[in-house]
Amino acid sequence: MTLIELIVAFTIMLILTSMALPLARVKVRREKERELRYALREMRAAIDRYKDASDRGLLGPPKLESEGYPPDLQTMVDGVKLQGTVDKKIRFLRRIPPDPLTGGTDWGLRAMKDDPGSQSWGGQNVFDVYTKSTDTALDGTKYSDW
How many domains, the chain? Predict the structure, then answer.
């Protein structure tokens, strides 16, 4: 009788475990999606703050081809010297956030003159950022379209 009880208990545990694993995978994926949304929102807000400071003339006259947008993400981390000051800098990002899907800080960039759906960067400025992951989200959209 004990062997039969052990087999039944083991079978029940196996069934419960096999039901829990897909739920755990979805939870991990949903957490990565939340982190991706937060990182994109943080960088896009920093780009907007940079553009606003440039338009107000706080960063000096913008380069003609930059249209007031930052030249790259690292510039927003390193800081930009304020116009009319000797050594005062303003930073727009503490660090470049890591991409939770790819694990690196190598984000896809788009310039102002690039096509909105392009996957190549013109190099003039940073108008938008996107993940380089080619995976599909839980809602069926591509992560790179976010």
Answer: 1
